[in-house]
């Protein structure tokens, strides 16, 4: 097994922030007066975003399927599932071109979703969510890392 990479570190961080998002969502649903550290003022409020209509199924599952569909889960649940997979990929990422390609593909899709969610955040919901910004930043760093590693691997293979 390979050493812990930057990729695995970022994935672990993404998992922890996703778990924190789940905690915030559940605490706010149980106690409306709950105010986490990321709720700074009316404009900078993670609970406003994490409990919005767009915080379930990325705001689109309900439109395509329905509100009660099993895929219409809180967005943070997807992170709790996604980042452990990324962590495992990160342990072996430099050993396999296939894993590099898979990670680049996964991270391209996740980054596209992150761009969509950032659009919703700033132009539809009109709030700033610090937790969301951290998660989206992690996603973009994972994309950059995986593409850079893939390009380095291709360059190394050309030289051999």
TrEMBL record:
<protein>
    <recommendedName>
        <fullName>vitamin-K-epoxide reductase (warfarin-sensitive)</fullName>
        <ecNumber>1.17.4.4</ecNumber>
    </recommendedName>
</protein>
<dbReference type="InterPro" id="IPR042406">
    <property type="entry name" value="VKORC1/VKORC1L1"/>
</dbReference>
<keyword id="KW-1133">Transmembrane helix</keyword>
<dbReference type="GO" id="GO:0042373">
    <property type="term" value="P:vitamin K metabolic process"/>
</dbReference>
<keyword id="KW-0472">Membrane</keyword>
<dbReference type="GO" id="GO:0047057">
    <property type="term" value="F:vitamin-K-epoxide reductase (warfarin-sensitive) activity"/>
</dbReference>
<keyword id="KW-0256">Endoplasmic reticulum</keyword>
<comment type="similarity">
    <text>Belongs to the VKOR family.</text>
</comment>
<dbReference type="GO" id="GO:0048038">
    <property type="term" value="F:quinone binding"/>
</dbReference>
<feature type="transmembrane region" description="Helical">
    <location>
        <begin position="128"/>
        <end position="151"/>
    </location>
</feature>
<keyword id="KW-0560">Oxidoreductase</keyword>
<dbReference type="Pfam" id="PF07884">
    <property type="entry name" value="VKOR"/>
</dbReference>
<keyword id="KW-0874">Quinone</keyword>
<dbReference type="InterPro" id="IPR012932">
    <property type="entry name" value="VKOR"/>
</dbReference>
<keyword id="KW-0676">Redox-active center</keyword>
<feature type="transmembrane region" description="Helical">
    <location>
        <begin position="76"/>
        <end position="94"/>
    </location>
</feature>
<keyword id="KW-0732">Signal</keyword>
<feature type="transmembrane region" description="Helical">
    <location>
        <begin position="99"/>
        <end position="122"/>
    </location>
</feature>
<feature type="domain" description="Vitamin K epoxide reductase">
    <location>
        <begin position="2"/>
        <end position="150"/>
    </location>
</feature>
<keyword id="KW-1015">Disulfide bond</keyword>
<dbReference type="InterPro" id="IPR038354">
    <property type="entry name" value="VKOR_sf"/>
</dbReference>
<feature type="signal peptide">
    <location>
        <begin position="1"/>
        <end position="21"/>
    </location>
</feature>
<keyword id="KW-0812">Transmembrane</keyword>
<dbReference type="GO" id="GO:0005789">
    <property type="term" value="C:endoplasmic reticulum membrane"/>
</dbReference>
């Amino acid at each position: 097994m390979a050493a812990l990479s930057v990729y695995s570190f970022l994935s672990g961080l993404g998992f922890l922030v996703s778990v924190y998002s789940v905690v915030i969502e559940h605490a706010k649903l149980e106690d409306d007066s709950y105010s986490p550290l990321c709720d700074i003022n009316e404009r900078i409020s993670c609970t406003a975003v994490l409990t919005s209509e767009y915080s379930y199924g990325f705001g689109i599952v309900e439109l395509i399927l329905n509100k009660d569909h099993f895929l219409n889960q809180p967005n943070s649940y997807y992170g709790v599932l996604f980042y452990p997979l990324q962590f495992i990929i990160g342990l072996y990422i430099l050993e396999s071109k296939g894993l590099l390609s898979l990670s680049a593909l996964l991270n391209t899709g996740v980054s596209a979703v992150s761009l969509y969610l950032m659009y919703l955040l700033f132009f539809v919901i009109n709030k700033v969510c610090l937790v969301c910004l951290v998660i989206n930043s992690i996603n973009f760093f994972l994309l950059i890392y995986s593409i850079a590693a893939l390009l380095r691997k291709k360059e190394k293979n050309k030289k051999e």
